[in-house]
Each structure stands twice: as structure tokens, then as C-alpha cells.
Write a structure and sequence with these properties.
The longest helix is centred in the middle third of the chain and has 33 residues, at 118-150. By secondary structure, the chain is of the alpha+beta class. The radius of gyration is 32 Å and the shape is elongated. Residues 7-32 and 222-249 have low confidence and may be disordered. Strands 1, 2, 3, 4, 5, 6 and 7 form a 7-stranded antiparallel β-sheet that branches. The protein folds into 2 domains: 10-113, PDZ domain (Pdz3 Domain, Roll), CATH 2.30.42.10; 118-280, no CATH class. The protein has helices at 2-20, 55-59, 80-88, 90-93, 118-150, 157-175, 185-217, 224-230, 250-280, and strands at 29-33, 36-41, 44-50, 66-70, 73-74, 96-103, 106-113. It is built from 9 helices and 7 strands, in the order αβββαββααββααααα.
Length: 281
């Protein structure tokens, strides 16, 4: 009997101890990603621990840093879990998060991002170079055609056939350029779009060159005024030369304009992809 009373008394004491213990808030200190622990405090977060070699460490975050804002949003309006969700996807998405921090008496900006691996950089350079080289063949062919048309001499069928074959080879080569998944996701998506536009530009070149051959074979020519005005003695490639003509054959004009549009979009996307890679470094 005495033993039962002792057990009951011990149980009651344990219950009182548990109920009176201070509550622990998971919001206070919580590891966000491997290598980083934050503490939620009034006004933001304090970095309590950064493991060497982790993504936060590679990005320049240090213990003691006070995070005031996350991607320009006041940190005191965000929960630990919200920050956790955003940081945790960085290794997979290859995106970035801009942190506004206070370190000692200095206000700094730190961008958390997954470093691009050497393999990813090599893959990007290979894909970017391949797309540019394959399009260069189209560009050089159009330059040759431009010079022949400007000479106002008959263009043999063999010239059109060679141009057609060059455009076809370039189209097939552009379409087959591999864009590996080791390239950061956003950059890879941009490269894929560039490949699509340049492939369409090469395909439109096929249509444009046959339309030009057909129109010229029917005796359609450019006026003397147009020829003199729009064919300067400049050996450099000029994308706008065709857009100034008002007396060009209809089919060629239409296909060529579409080609220039696709070509311009493709090159703009290649430049955008290069800029994205610089931001990842």
C-alpha cells in the first residue's frame, strides 16, 4: 500500500515538473539547411552556426550575422519555416536568395546560391559554342548570297543548292545540340529556347533561299535605286539590309523577315544565358 502511494506521489511530481517547464519554441532556433542554424529574434534572424563547405558558407554568410531582409522582404514578417522552404530548394533549382544583413556596424548584401560545378561550366560552354558555330555557317552563307545578289550577275543554280544544303546541315546540327542537365536549371531552359529559335531560323533560311531562287528565275529583280542605296561597300554582316527593301519578291521577303526575327531572339537568349552563368559563379 505504502509502495502504491509512493508511486502516485512520484507521478504527480513529474507531471508538475513537465507542466511548469518553460515552453521551447521550434521557431526560436532551428536548422534551416545543412550547415546553417538561425535564431528568430525581434526584427529578423541571427545566424548561430555556419558549417564550413556548406552553401551558406560558400556564399559568405558568417555566425553572428543579423538578417534584416530576405529578397527585399522584411525578415520580421517571415517565419523560420518560410525561410527554410526557400533556402532548401536552392541546391536543386540553382536559384538564389538575396539577404540584407548587418555585420558588426556594416550593412551588407549576401546572395545565397549554389555554386556551379566545373562540370556544369564546361557543359554550358560546349553547348553555347556549338549553337554559335552551327549558326555561323548560316550567317556566312547569307553573306555570300548577299554579295552575289549585289553584284547584279546571274547566280548559278549550284550556288542556291549549296546554300540550301548548308542551311539543312545547320538546321539538323542545331536541333541535335545537347544541353545537359548539369547546367543550372534556369540557364539550361534559356539555352533550350535559344536552340529552338536558331533551329527555326535555319529552317526558314531553307524556305527563303528557295523562294529567292524561284523569284529570280522568273525575272524579278531589284531596282537600280534600291541596289545602290541598300548595298553599301561594307564587308561586315548587316542584318538590316533586307528590311529596307520595298521592291523585293514577296515570298523571299516574308521568309527572310521571319528568319531574322528568330535569329535575333536566339542570339538574345544566348547572351541572357551567358549573363546567368556569370551570376552563378
Amino acid at each position: 500500500m505504502r509502495t502504491n502511494k509512493s508511486l502516485l506521489l512520484l507521478g504527480a511530481i513529474l507531471v508538475v515538473m513537465v507542466l511548469s517547464a518553460p515552453a521551447f519554441s521550434q521557431e526560436a532556433v532551428q536548422p534551416l539547411v545543412p550547415g546553417l542554424t538561425l535564431e528568430k529574434v525581434p526584427g529578423g534572424f541571427v545566424v548561430r552556426n555556419v558549417v564550413e563547405g556548406s552553401l551558406p558558407h560558400a556564399s559568405g554568410l558568417l555566425p553572428g550575422d543579423f538578417i534584416k531582409a530576405v529578397d527585399f522582404r522584411p525578415a520580421d514578417t517571415l517565419s523560420t519555416q518560410e525561410v527554410l522552404d526557400e533556402i532548401s530548394i536552392l541546391p536543386e533549382s540553382h536559384g538564389s536568395i538575396l539577404l540584407s544583413i548587418k555585420r558588426s556596424n556594416r550593412n551588407l548584401l549576401i546572395r545565397l546560391k549554389q555554386p556551379v560545378t566545373f562540370e556544369g561550366q564546361e557543359a554550358f560552354l560546349e553547348a553555347d559554342t556549338s549553337l554559335r558555330i552551327h549558326w555561323q555557317a548560316c550567317e556566312e552563307t547569307w553573306l555570300d548570297i548577299r554579295q552575289k545578289v549585289a553584284s547584279r550577275t546571274p547566280i548559278p543554280k549550284e550556288t542556291f543548292d549549296m546554300a540550301f544544303n548548308t542551311f539543312m546541315d545547320s538546321r539538323n546540327a542545331l536541333a541535335s545540340v545537347e544541353v545537359p542537365k548539369v547546367i543550372p536549371e534556369k540557364t539550361r531552359t534559356t539555352l533550350l529556347k535559344a536552340r529552338s529559335h536558331l533551329t527555326r531560323a535555319a529552317n526558314l533560311s531553307l524556305l527563303a533561299i528557295r523562294a529567292l531562287e524561284d523569284d529570280l528565275s522568273k525575272g524579278k529583280t531589284l531596282t537600280e535605286a534600291t541596289m545602290i542605296k541598300n548595298f553599301p561597300n561594307d564587308p561586315n554582316w548587316d542584318e538590316d539590309w533586307i528590311l529596307k527593301f520595298e521592291s523585293l519578291p514577296g515570298g523571299f521577303n516574308s521568309f527572310y523577315r521571319q528568319m531574322l526575327s528568330e535569329h535575333g531572339k536566339g542570339l538574345a537568349l544566348l547572351m541572357e544565358a551567358q549573363q546567368l552563368m556569370k551570376e552563378y559563379r
